Structure prediction request, 335 residues.
Amino acid sequence: MRQDDAVSLSGRPARPRRARAPAAAPGHARTIAHWIARTLAADPPRARSLIVTVWGDALAPHDGRVWLATLIRLMAPFGLSDRLVRTSVFRLARDGWVAGETHGRRSRYRLTGEGARRFAQAHQRIYAPADAAWTGGWEMVIVPPDAAGAAQRQALREELAWEGFATVAPATLARPAHGESPTQRIVTALGLAHAAMVLHVRDDPGAASTLAARAAAAWPLRALAADYRRLIGSFGTVIDRFRDTPDHLDPEQCFVVRTLLIHAYRRVLLRDPQLPASLLPPDWPGAAAYALTRDFYRLTHAVAERHLVATCAADGDTLPPADTAFYARFGGLAT
Prediction:
């Protein structure tokens, strides 16, 4: 990666330009600032993972291209140094998520086709409510050990886990059948179409053991419930501060807290198989975590977008309009 020109005349890194907020309430702004500082100090996010969150949540809807200098400015409020951002982007490029191009002394990065596919795969899980329609059917994938190598089978388990599958027997993964199945696309992409058996089955209600009865053992529901409750407890109070002054929101604070919330929610949700309600404990907190995230996103998305626009403008870039999928998030955002 080349040296970027995100420096001031003194040679020091340029300070991020803050989007102007309309007469922000000082007390609430200070409280939110303290919460952000405490949260980042108590549990500093991994740089690469947080950059993936910012790219998928904020940049991908605007065509997924960004100057490296702009990304450095966006990540500065999270305590990430320019060197850490550069290193993380280099690794994302090495792993095929993004590709770089140079313009003189400046570097610009865009999503690759594979990176865009990964974000699109996560998009539906994060921003849409769980599919409540379930008729009792199950989708099963069986890959015998002698039909594929260990590395291929591990890659399949990882890809299917993103889609809510769990191991229910040796070499056998299953999930409640709902929505459009991704299985054929995944097994084909991994070169396992010849080896994987994909079945659609139903529990025998008279059987001594059923797939439904194995849900609590096959999926880590207790740990997921604890993580959802921790998220609600961590973000609930600070989100109330934003609700108290909806007409006086600070753009940078909206962007930072929204990013931290989506980052925390994503880390739990992408491990959540999103089982039908009939297979979940009666006090399942996933719906409350979704509602908290949805309501905060709807409250702050327009103001957070102002921070994104202003940060891009600081590097002389005009942010393309967000795509229609962005405004469909969480059941619909105001345009």
User: Anything to note?
Assistant: Confidence is low (pLDDT under 50) at residues 1-24. The first helix runs from residue 26 to 42. The beta strands are 66-67, 98-103, 106-111, 137-142, 166-169, 172-176, 197-202. The two ends are 37 Å apart (CA to CA).
